[in-house]
């Protein structure tokens, strides 16, 4: 994994590769302690994703690959940059079902520092099930709506928006859940 510097409330993604026979099992450690997936911190095979970074996430992260032949560790540092001069969260997020694969998401600009927003990121994931991968789309600051059109039919999805400015990211907006139509 490569060391990263990220703003508070941003997202960090670490990737790790290992090969062996038998195929190694991958796990992640933070400052030497095993990490467990929770709402903000997720592990997908060889990836570690930390959403909505908080100051306590500033740490050394280690990827461990282990099989019956032994284990190996590789490490990277996450440095969290603090910035008080950031926008408030986008507000009044609402979703509207367009079809079996598309949902229109709309929101209002942040109340605070909205003139400094350079981009928005739209985050979405399936609402049901465990360890659903979170997808992210980054869009320009000139719009406050976006159509996500690669969704599965008859499924619930949860969405939230983050505003970005040069110094860092806002908090997440309120989450909204919406259902796609049957095919």
From TrEMBL:
Pfam families the record matches: fn3, I-set
Subcellular location(s) per record: Membrane
Domain Ig-like: 1-79
InterPro entries: FN3_dom, FN3_sf, Ig-like_dom, Ig-like_dom_sf, Ig-like_fold, Ig_I-set, Ig_sub, Ig_sub2
Membrane topology: Single-pass membrane protein
Main location per the UniProt record: membrane
Keywords annotated in UniProt: Developmental protein, Disulfide bond, Glycoprotein, Immunoglobulin domain, Membrane, Repeat, Signal, Transmembrane, Transmembrane helix
One GO cellular component, as annotated: membrane
SUPFAM superfamilies registered for this protein in UniProt: Fibronectin type III, Immunoglobulin
Residue ranges constituting the Fibronectin type-III domain according to the UniProt record: 89-183
GO biological process, one term: cell-cell adhesion
Protein's job: May play a role in anteroposterior axis elongation.
Protein family (similarity comment): Belongs to the immunoglobulin superfamily. DCC family.
Protein name: Protogenin
Organism: Chelydra serpentina (Snapping turtle)
